Amino acid sequence: MYIHWDKSYEIGNPLIDTEHRLLIMLFRKLDVAIKSAEPEATIMRILLEVKKFADFHFTSEENLMHEVGYPDTAAHEEIHSALLAQLEVMIGRVSKKREMPDDLLYFLNEWILQHIAQEDQKIADFARFSEHRPIGEFTYPEYI
Protein backbone atom coordinates (compact mmCIF):
# COMPACT_ATOMS: atom_id res chain seq x y z
CA MET A 1 0.00 0.00 0.00
CA TYR A 2 1.40 3.35 -0.95
CA ILE A 3 0.38 6.85 -1.82
CA HIS A 4 1.47 9.18 -4.56
CA TRP A 5 1.80 12.91 -4.16
CA ASP A 6 -1.32 14.75 -5.19
CA LYS A 7 -1.74 18.51 -5.41
CA SER A 8 -4.69 18.20 -3.02
CA TYR A 9 -2.14 17.47 -0.25
CA GLU A 10 -0.57 20.92 -0.64
CA ILE A 11 -1.11 23.25 2.30
CA GLY A 12 0.15 26.37 0.57
CA ASN A 13 3.58 26.73 2.15
CA PRO A 14 6.24 25.91 -0.46
CA LEU A 15 8.84 24.70 2.04
CA ILE A 16 6.51 22.38 3.94
CA ASP A 17 4.84 21.15 0.75
CA THR A 18 8.26 20.25 -0.69
CA GLU A 19 9.22 18.38 2.46
CA HIS A 20 5.90 16.53 2.44
CA ARG A 21 6.55 15.47 -1.17
CA LEU A 22 9.96 14.17 -0.12
CA LEU A 23 8.46 12.22 2.78
CA ILE A 24 5.96 10.59 0.45
CA MET A 25 8.80 9.82 -1.98
CA LEU A 26 10.64 8.04 0.85
CA PHE A 27 7.49 6.08 1.70
CA ARG A 28 7.28 5.03 -1.95
CA LYS A 29 10.96 4.03 -1.87
CA LEU A 30 10.20 1.83 1.14
CA ASP A 31 7.23 0.31 -0.66
CA VAL A 32 9.36 -0.54 -3.70
CA ALA A 33 12.02 -2.11 -1.47
CA ILE A 34 9.44 -4.24 0.31
CA LYS A 35 7.67 -5.35 -2.87
CA SER A 36 10.95 -6.16 -4.64
CA ALA A 37 12.08 -8.25 -1.65
CA GLU A 38 15.17 -6.19 -0.96
CA PRO A 39 17.38 -7.51 1.86
CA GLU A 40 16.36 -6.68 5.40
CA ALA A 41 19.43 -4.47 5.81
CA THR A 42 18.29 -2.32 2.85
CA ILE A 43 14.79 -1.94 4.29
CA MET A 44 16.22 -1.00 7.69
CA ARG A 45 18.45 1.66 6.07
CA ILE A 46 15.43 3.13 4.29
CA LEU A 47 13.52 3.15 7.58
CA LEU A 48 16.41 5.03 9.18
CA GLU A 49 16.27 7.52 6.28
CA VAL A 50 12.53 7.97 6.83
CA LYS A 51 13.04 8.52 10.56
CA LYS A 52 15.85 11.05 10.09
CA PHE A 53 13.97 12.95 7.41
CA ALA A 54 10.79 13.00 9.51
CA ASP A 55 12.81 14.45 12.39
CA PHE A 56 14.32 17.08 10.07
CA HIS A 57 10.89 17.91 8.64
CA PHE A 58 9.37 18.29 12.09
CA THR A 59 12.15 20.71 13.02
CA SER A 60 11.38 22.72 9.87
CA GLU A 61 7.70 22.87 10.73
CA GLU A 62 8.45 23.81 14.33
CA ASN A 63 10.80 26.58 13.22
CA LEU A 64 8.10 27.89 10.88
CA MET A 65 5.55 27.87 13.73
CA HIS A 66 7.92 29.83 15.97
CA GLU A 67 8.75 32.30 13.19
CA VAL A 68 5.11 33.15 12.47
CA GLY A 69 3.96 33.06 16.10
CA TYR A 70 1.63 30.07 15.72
CA PRO A 71 -0.36 29.83 18.98
CA ASP A 72 -0.55 26.00 19.14
CA THR A 73 3.16 25.36 18.60
CA ALA A 74 3.65 23.43 21.85
CA ALA A 75 0.75 21.08 21.11
CA HIS A 76 2.00 20.47 17.57
CA GLU A 77 5.52 19.78 18.86
CA GLU A 78 4.02 17.17 21.21
CA ILE A 79 2.35 15.48 18.24
CA HIS A 80 5.71 15.39 16.47
CA SER A 81 7.46 13.94 19.53
CA ALA A 82 4.79 11.27 19.92
CA LEU A 83 5.03 10.32 16.26
CA LEU A 84 8.82 10.02 16.37
CA ALA A 85 8.55 7.85 19.49
CA GLN A 86 5.92 5.66 17.82
CA LEU A 87 8.05 5.41 14.68
CA GLU A 88 11.08 4.39 16.76
CA VAL A 89 9.07 1.63 18.47
CA MET A 90 7.70 0.36 15.18
CA ILE A 91 11.15 0.32 13.55
CA GLY A 92 12.42 -1.64 16.55
CA ARG A 93 9.56 -4.09 16.15
CA VAL A 94 10.35 -4.49 12.43
CA SER A 95 14.00 -5.14 13.25
CA LYS A 96 12.96 -7.86 15.72
CA LYS A 97 10.47 -9.26 13.19
CA ARG A 98 7.51 -8.48 15.45
CA GLU A 99 6.10 -6.03 12.92
CA MET A 100 5.99 -6.29 9.15
CA PRO A 101 7.46 -3.42 7.11
CA ASP A 102 4.14 -3.26 5.23
CA ASP A 103 2.35 -2.50 8.51
CA LEU A 104 4.76 0.34 9.22
CA LEU A 105 4.32 1.67 5.69
CA TYR A 106 0.54 1.59 6.10
CA PHE A 107 0.87 3.51 9.38
CA LEU A 108 3.15 6.13 7.76
CA ASN A 109 0.84 6.63 4.78
CA GLU A 110 -2.25 7.01 6.95
CA TRP A 111 -0.44 9.27 9.38
CA ILE A 112 0.91 11.71 6.83
CA LEU A 113 -2.39 12.20 5.04
CA GLN A 114 -4.26 12.78 8.28
CA HIS A 115 -1.52 15.00 9.72
CA ILE A 116 -1.32 17.16 6.58
CA ALA A 117 -5.08 17.54 6.25
CA GLN A 118 -5.72 18.36 9.89
CA GLU A 119 -2.70 19.71 11.76
CA ASP A 120 -0.41 21.11 9.07
CA GLN A 121 -3.25 22.88 7.28
CA LYS A 122 -3.91 24.86 10.49
CA ILE A 123 -0.30 26.06 10.48
CA ALA A 124 -0.46 27.10 6.83
CA ASP A 125 -3.74 28.93 7.32
CA PHE A 126 -2.31 30.83 10.29
CA ALA A 127 1.01 31.57 8.54
CA ARG A 128 -0.76 32.91 5.46
CA PHE A 129 -2.21 35.81 7.45
CA SER A 130 0.40 36.24 10.16
CA GLU A 131 2.09 39.62 10.39
CA HIS A 132 5.30 37.71 11.17
CA ARG A 133 6.73 36.15 8.02
CA PRO A 134 8.89 33.02 7.80
CA ILE A 135 12.54 34.04 7.84
CA GLY A 136 13.49 32.39 4.55
CA GLU A 137 10.22 32.98 2.74
CA PHE A 138 11.82 35.30 0.16
CA THR A 139 14.26 32.53 -0.84
CA TYR A 140 11.62 29.86 -1.55
CA PRO A 141 11.22 30.68 -5.25
CA GLU A 142 14.96 30.45 -5.83
CA TYR A 143 15.45 27.06 -4.14
CA ILE A 144 12.14 25.24 -4.22
Automatic annotation (TrEMBL):
Organism annotation: Ferrovum myxofaciens
Domain Hemerythrin-like intervals: 15-125
Superkingdom of origin: Bacteria
Name of the protein in question: Bacteriohemerythrin
Family: Belongs to the hemerythrin family.
Stored PANTHER family: BACTERIOHEMERYTHRIN
CDD domains: Hemerythrin
Gene Ontology MF terms in the entry: metal ion binding; oxygen carrier activity
Keywords (A to Z) from UniProt: Iron, Metal-binding, Oxygen transport, Transport
